[in-house]
Design brief:
The complex is a heterodimer of chains A (111) and B (114). With 111 residues, chain A is mostly beta strands. Chain A has no helices and eleven strands. Chain A is globular. Chain B has 114 residues and is mostly beta strands. In chain B, strand 4 (31-37) and strand 5 form a beta hairpin. The radius of gyration of chain B is 13 Å and the shape is globular. Chain B starts with a strand and ends with a strand. The chains are: A mainly beta (111), B mainly beta (114). The interface between A and B is medium-sized, with 25 and 24 residues.
């Protein structure tokens, strides 16, 4: 079982819909990252969270440390949001910045 | 302006022909990472540098080497590329080694092996 699990693996939405992508992890963490990767492209860091909630434009990320769960929300989705969204965590123990990646959620937003 | 720059964006090489991928950063970060990402898979850390200290992941093949001649530049050398080495190679940086430091990624180099 992966230490970082995402759901759903694939998501198709209509333009304007509210989207939620979930991430659960089984290890103690010091930080959780939400990353975006467009097809054939590099990775863009969207959020880094250790508690609470962060908002940037139409994107909102929340984390519940007790439940070991994070969500990424996209409001008023747009076709340009189509990408793979990856959840990744830093382990709590050890002085390491090595990320443990989830397998990603492929989002397609249709006009 | 791009802060982590990878060149080239696409690289084609022949089976067994050495290839070098480059990464530069304008952030003056201490740590630089190289990740390999195969199609539909999560990125896999190959190695990282903290300043000039090189740290190899245990399962990184010997075929992969790296150089960091100065703070700004880091190179990934694949000595004898095989078909299985075709992948996206991602460079990333962080200011320090602390887990709370944000990572900054380059746009990647897509490597094809013919």
């Amino acid at each position: 079982k992966n230490e970082v699990e995402q759901s759903p693996q694939n998501l198709t939405a209509q333009e304007g819909e509210f989207i939620t992508i979930n991430c659960s992890y089984s290890v103690g963490i010091s930080a959780l990252h939400w990353l975006q990767q467009h097809p054939g492209g590099g990775i863009v860091s969207l959020f880094m969270l250790s508690s609470g909630k962060k908002k940037h434009g139409r994107l909102i990320a929340t984390i519940n440390i007790q439940e070991k769960h994070s969500s990424l929300h996209i409001t008023a989705s747009h076709p340009r949001d189509s990408a793979v969204y990856i959840c990744a965590v830093n382990r709590l123990r050890g002085a390491t910045n090595k990320l443990i990646f989830g397998t990603g959620t492929l989002l397609a937003v249709q006009p | 302006d791009a802060m982590v720059i990878q060149n080239p964006r696409y690289q084609v090489t022949q089976f067994g022909k050495p290839v070098t991928l480059s990464c530069s950063q304008t952030l003056n970060h201490n740590v630089m990472y190289w990740y390999q990402q195969k199609s539909s898979q999560a990125p896999k850390l190959l190695f990282h540098y903290y300043d000039k200290d090189f740290n190899n992941e245990a399962d990184t093949p010997d075929n992969f080497q790296s150089r960091r001649p100065n703070t700004s530049f880091c190179f990934l050398d694949i000595r004898s590329p095989g078909l299985g080495d075709a992948a996206m190679y991602l460079c990333a940086t962080s200011r320090d080694w602390d887990p709370s430091e944000k990572l900054f990624f380059g746009s990647g180099t897509q490597l094809s092996v013919l």
